[in-house]
Design brief:
Layout (H helix, E strand, L loop, with lengths): L4 H17 L16 E6 L5 H12 L4 E2 L10 E6 L3 E9 L5 E15 L5 E13 L5 H33 L1
Parallel strand pairs: 1-2, 1-3
Antiparallel strand pairs: 3-5, 4-5, 5-6
Helix pairs in contact: 2-3
Length: about 170
């Protein structure tokens, strides 16, 4: 089925307007502004799992940075100070025997961003996942829980980088 050219143009314009009105925009290849050369990560625990996840994700987003300060980029460094991670569980359902069947895992992340001009921005968010427990398969469920937590940390790292980009452009 072929549409007339005018109909095609109307569809393109309507689609563009709809996407623009909902706030959609294409992500650029550079996550942080061009005047930022380094992302310094700080945490009370040097090898915290979220620090490791952030370091890996920074490589994916091609962001230069790490846990050591770089004096060469002192005037163009954003410092990200992570607070200790928080993991909670909320009961969702139980078996007829009274044993827990399903949890909601709540991974809380609190951090402070210090921009090159000294401005500090504090942020907190949660990553949620449902987790089904099976008391008959403890070892398998333990490994699954570790995998779910790892995925939650990767999602948190991605979210921090996206929030950092948007906060810096607002700041």
């Amino acid at each position: 089925m072929h549409f007339p050219i005018a109909v095609r143009y109307c569809l393109i314009v309507l689609t563009t307007v709809a996407l623009a009105s909902c706030g959609f925009h294409l992500r650029s290849d550079k996550t942080l502004p061009s005047d930022i050369n380094y992302l310094h990560l700080e945490s009370s625990t040097r090898n915290a799992p979220l620090i490791r996840a952030l370091t890996v994700r920074m490589g994916v987003y091609q962001i230069d940075g790490g846990t050591e300060a770089n004096p060469a980029y002192q005037d163009s460094t954003i410092t990200l100070r992570l607070q200790p991670e928080k993991l909670d569980r909320r009961l969702l359902s139980v078996f007829s025997t009274g044993q827990v069947a399903e949890y909601e895992l709540i991974y809380g992340v609190r951090y402070t961003v210090t921009l090159p001009d000294g401005t500090q921005i504090e942020n907190f968010f949660e990553v949620l996942r449902e987790y089904q427990d099976d008391p008959d398969q403890v070892l398998a469920k333990s490994r699954e829980l570790n995998l779910v937590l790892s995925e939650m940390r990767v999602e948190a790292a991605d979210r921090i980088i996206r929030l950092l980009s948007s906060q810096y452009s607002q700041g």
